[in-house]
Fold these 2 entries.
Entry 1:
Amino acid sequence: MCGIIGYTGKEDAVPIIVEGLKKLEYRGYDSSGIAVYGKNGFDVVKQKGRLSVLEDRLKDRMRENKPLCGNLGIGHTRWATHGEPSDINSHPHVGSKNKIAVVHNGIIENYKQLKERLENYGVPFASQTDSEVIAQLAEHYYCGDIIDAVIKVSNAVEGSYALGVMCIDERDTLIAVKKDNPLIIGICDHGNFIASDVPAVLKHTNRVYYLNDKEIAVLREGSVQFFNMDREPLQKNIETIKWSMDSAEKGGYPHFMLKEIMEQPRVLRDTIQSVIMEGENKNVLDNISVSCFNKIIITACGSAYNAGVTAKYVFEKLCRISVEVELASEFRYRDAIIDNKTLVILVSQSGETADTIAAMREAKSKGASTLSIVNVIGSTIAKEADYCLFTAAGPEIAVATTKAFSAQLVLLYILAIRFALRLKILSHNEERELLAQIATLPDKVSALLDKTGSIQMYASTCVGYKSIFFIGRNIDYAIALEGSLKLKEISYIHSEAYAGGELKHGTISLVEENTLVVALSNCSYLYGKIMSNAEQVISRGAKVLLIGSCSDAASAHDSEKLYHISLPHVHEMFSPSLSVIVLQLFSYYVAANKGLDIDKPRNLAKSVTVE
Ligand code: F6R
């Protein structure tokens, strides 16, 4: 959470930083701020609220004939952890001697002790943040050498950080350092950048370095140097990012979320291709051996966890191997029973989710093999897991995941099929048949996306609900979890997902006149069961939105009470890839009808790099 950016070069840093912050706003939007060098020290503009508030303030400065400008600057967009969202708690933070300014993404765990020590030396603190301690500590250590001060700060603080640092005495130098939070260094003809994520610099360059933990980058207009904590120079490889600039723009859609939903046929095609064409994904799939594992654990957070729950049904059905799925935040503290015969699969769009990183490290420390499914190349989970499969979703900007989730599902299906083949449970013919089914998904998703009218119409009638329930059985239950999460996070309508059979064990007491229940029906052998659940709630006054390929009895019901959205037929195991499209669109249109800020739901941030 929080996004940082910095620039040094020939151009005015301020518009570049503002543009970059727009691409990072998905990481937090409680406040934002920018610092450049002014005539007498730092010139800082920072404001509580969305980036647009900061932009207004910058326009005021122009009108007042005091524009914020300079060739070197740092910027920040905040997701508040320590200290409420306020102007004073916004970044950049400047030390009390006005020598050092800092932007920080992460959490300083020992900030209270450090703050106390500094206060004992008489250092006055202005904010309630943990981050201010970095600026104050850097000034405390600073004796004319900013690199030295940054190294000392890195050694003193505990926790996670990605930092951009400016020093008033070294006006041509921008320093960056990180631990457990992402930071890239971008280079281009007119200058050099630091940023939390690639989209922030994509307009200017696709050439980046990924900073590793405890590496320092020293940026000047025409140069970038890297050092370790002993100040020894480091040689790093530059990477060329394949994402196009368009991928970080809305491209005419009202929201990134809708654009990203619509991109899914392409994303599925590219992800499927990535395991067929020569390249990293194919190598991993060809080389990973499954016979040495007697247990698979899938661990992740949020939607990525839901992808894991869905995949469990596929793995267990195809591979007859026991699969546990666990929330990473629980797994990391559970002392799980794992050993070198366990494969732990980490699923993460960002590759930076703190709990998933911790789960991965825990699994590795116990000798398990780790395989990650990640969207962001160069991210911590991608780098640290023993094996990594990349989803070809491109940058996902909307906070609510859509296309990355779909890509995760498809990679998990293919992984399960490959394992089943290796375990000799599937024949080559059966493998080919299943892969052929998967290959039909992009076109089927495309067909669904061509006809959004009925979903849009139905969603427009749902804005008034206080609560919506999702039910399903078997793999439909897994995807019901995702439907429910999607709805609540962007529409703010309370929602729960239940296994259909569980309704009568308590949940049904919540059903009353006009409650909406979304029922998934793709498992043909359970169709009768889910329909009887639908009847149970209808007879208690509920309305049912039935989504699925199984539907013959749908017309037998009162159409006032039951509305059916039909899905194309595909193998039941892969039906979540179609259901989820309708569920995403449903959530999107409900939220759109409520006029909500869909891409940036309240209190959320896309990349959850804190616990
Ligand atoms: C929901 C959503 C979150 C993420 C979760 C994990 O729409 O996006 O629940 O799925 O925060 O994030 P990653 O996949 O980056 O580890």
Entry 2:
Amino acid sequence: MSDFKNVCVVNHPLCCHNLSIIRNKETSAEVFRNAIRRITYLLFYKATEELELEAIKIETPLEVCEGKTLKRNKEIIIAPILRAGLIFSDVANEIMPFATVRHIGMYRDEDTLTPVWYYNKIPVEVEHPEDKIILILDPMLATGNSAIDSIKLFTNKKVPQENIRFISLISAPEGLRKVQDAFPNVKIITASIDNCLNEQGYIRPGLGDAGDRIFNTVEN
Ligand code: URA
């Protein structure tokens, strides 16, 4: 945990190493994407450590033994915020192939720094909201505005805050404070809490525009 209640910073040496690769402005899009994928495994290790298990019996080629399997009483929903969140959802889907993926389409209005919706695959009615585990994915938690809007999508449908995790690569203290004030029981998992936001709402030192660097659309 960090100084923020309910914010877990995964500062594993491999996270730190790969973060340095993606922060470097000279890093190519291909190397950038691969380094993020490596960090994603480590973030998900933390984000999923409270999933419940149940005992099963397994017959190995040698004998019957006790094993453990994930309890299927809860539906796991992976919710990447387009477009940068897609970099996390490939890995998330690979390690949890049974999960549901519900995309959230939001971009940031560069003048007001507020999120603008254009797509949302969340059902109008969420049945048994208490039985959902939501993993919202966005590499950059900057102002916190899109994080708050995306969390609201689920809390408005009665999903308990305790069942929601927000997963980011890099977070700004300003955004973390805002999200935690609005949703104190949503757990945030991040690889770094950086220094601050600049006037354009970019995280410093950060890594620039994550979506542009992932999809190689950086304009010079
Ligand atoms: N979004 C980004 O891609 N980068 C930032 O620094 C802030 C928001």
